[in-house]
Request: fold
Amino acid sequence: LGGIIKPGQTIVLVTPIDDEAPEGRMILPQVMAIRDVLDNDCICVVLKETALQQYFDNNPKPALVVTDSQVFGLVNKIVPHDVQLTSFSIILARLRGDFENYLKGTPQLSNLKDGDKILMLESCTHEISCGDIGRVKLPNLIRKFTGKNIEFTYLAGLTPIENIHQYAMAIQCGGCMATRKQLINRTNMAVENGIPISNYGMAIAYMNGIFDRVTGVFSH
Reply:
């Protein structure tokens, strides 16, 4: 968040506790964000999405709200439009991913056709749950948004990418368990072959109609 927030500002972090939340702890992007807010000498407020309206009803407006992408729809309705909004996945993409190419590639979601294939890139290997964001929620959202019969291929960790030309686009996770070099090397194959790339947070924001709002934080 360097260059985005200023000392003394209040930053609100919205952290849902759902099936994917690890028991007894926060996920790494949330922990990193808390530390970054404190390192920038700001006031950090951490709450669940169910308490967000209460916060705005009883407190001065914060400088920025950072939310889990999965509750973008709800949070966007609550956060006034004169308050900046983004997500953990997007700020992590700014830190580690190919941010500019994510910005360019995300609108490809509106151009998908029946039978197109999307490559879902996961940087870690983890136990898959019924509510998994990359393998369940995001693919379902894409099919609903496009109204098309889209096929998905899932690659975890550093599994080699084969026949990159078969894909209409690639979508990379936030990459909290990878280095910037690993993420760039992973997505460069798509970029070099003219295949649009996006990341989880940007894709969800785009399909919620708030892409410009949540990425505009970084263009001021």
